[in-house]
Design brief:
This protein is 38% helix and 18% strand. By secondary structure, it is an alpha/beta fold. The protein has a six-stranded mixed sheet with strand order 1-14-13-12-2-3. Strands 4-5-6-7-10-11 form a six-stranded mixed sheet, with helices on both faces. A hairpin with a 2-residue loop joins strand 5 and strand 6 (94-98). The longest helix is centred in the middle third of the chain and has 22 residues, at 224-245. The protein is elongated.
Length: 390
């Protein structure tokens, strides 16, 4: 455990819990639950608010629900064509659609990625359902996709058709796009009054070096030759799509996100790309919740140099600093020095592997270990009113 020397903050109000997921162990909403349990054990009188962090990837809908949004289950097509029950999150006239809910790796039998035949069709079906609900804004999170079809499936899920030279519907997947001959977009809904936000971080272009085939395709298990075939299909898709909608999008920021689903959102839906974590914090009302908080507790699986460049904890800490609220972080493992943490506006860091050094056991017991850490955080940062006044 690491904690800087500090003066105990005076009581102000609630504690705001704003962690990201611990990849491979707990979703952000589960991290919140265990942090809250640890706080209740030590300081049951202190109110707790939740603002779990999401970046548009897996767990974004669950994070929204934990922040008070309504879960809306929908049966859609999974990445392999089998039906799955996915969900979107709804709050007023805004819906969050998470690509991974419909076409993430966890939706693939056996967890095997689908770089060639996988489809984002279900994500389009989720969006179509949101439109039928009458929403005026759709936030599309495209992280953690199990497919790399350039968002072709997403367009099909919204009602578009992709046809070969004989007028037949193309089979799913990115490599099938090499046979694309024509698009029939007459079935697409009218989205002229719906704002579409693409929540994506650090994604490259759709095609070419650094494009979807190279990054997503290889990550999903494609070989070099297979990646070239996938890139050829995505180029064909981009050529016809941009000609049809008269909107260049393949090189835009976010186009390669979600196996290229970002391209479809930018080209066909006129989406506006926003940084995932920062946008989600704003969407969940983080600034307002942090303003009168005594303490913000953030965290993620690893606190390292990479985490300081756009990671959840550093982003939360900067936002909390603007509200004048101190921040501590919980993490599975940490390689940052105290000075680097202070420069990132994180006052203290508490590490699971300081309690359980075996990483496998640490991940299996992450919930219980988080509660143990939170008891220590409450004892150090949330003294009773009399103790704080002395």
């Amino acid at each position: 455990m690491f904690a800087d020397d500090h003066c105990a903050p005076s009581p102000r109000g609630h504690v705001l819990l704003a962690p990201d997921r611990f990849r491979g162990a707990l979703e952000a909403a589960e991290v919140v639950r265990h942090l809250a349990a640890g706080l209740r054990r030590q300081r049951p009188e202190v109110p707790v608010l939740a603002a779990p962090v999401a970046d548009g990837g897996e767990g974004t809908v669950n994070a929204a629900v934990a922040a008070g949004w309504r879960r809306v289950p929908v049966e859609v097509c999974g990445p392999t064509g089998r039906p799955v029950t996915a969900a979107l999150a709804l709050n007023g006239d805004t819906a969050i659609v998470e690509l991974a809910e419909a076409a993430g790796v966890r939706r693939v039998p056996g967890g095997e990625p689908q770089p060639f035949g996988g489809t984002s069709l279900g994500a389009g079906q989720l969006m179509a359902h949101a439109v039928r609900l009458g929403v005026r804004r759709i936030v599309l999170g495209v992280g953690d996709a199990a497919c790399a079809d350039g968002g072709a499936g997403l367009v099909q899920g919204l009602g578009g058709r992709l046809l070969d030279a004989l007028g037949r519907d193309l089979p799913p997947g990115g490599t099938a796009l090499r046979s694309l001959h024509a698009l029939d977009l007459r079935g697409l809904p009218d989205l002229s009054r719906v704002e579409v936000i693409l929540a994506a971080d650090g994604a490259g272009p759709l095609v070419g070096r650094g494009g979807t085939a190279v990054t997503q395709g290889l990550r999903l298990g494609a070989g070099r030759e297979e990646a070239r075939a996938l890139d050829a299909g995505l180029r064909r898709w981009a050529d016809l799509a941009e000609a049809a909608v008269r909107r260049p999008a393949r090189e835009r920021a976010g186009a390669g996100a979600g196996g290229g689903a970002g391209f479809a959102a930018l080209a066909f839906l006129g989406a506006k790309s926003e940084p995932g974590v920062t946008f989600m914090l704003d969407l969940f009302g983080f600034a307002e919740k942090a303003r009168d908080a005594r303490l913000v507790v953030t965290g993620e699986g690893s606190l390292d140099v990479r985490a300081l460049r756009g990671g959840a904890s550093a982003t939360v800490a900067r936002a909390a600093a603007r509200a004048g609220t101190p921040v501590v972080a919980v993490t599975e493992r940490r390689s940052l020095t105290g000075e680097r943490l202070r420069r990132a506006r994180i006052q203290a860091a508490y590490t699971l592997t300081d309690i359980e050094r075996d990483l496998d056991r640490c991940r299996r017991q992450a919930g219980a270990l988080l509660e143990q850490l939170t008891v220590a955080i409450a004892a150090e940062w949330l003294p009773p009113a009399r103790a704080a006044a002395r």
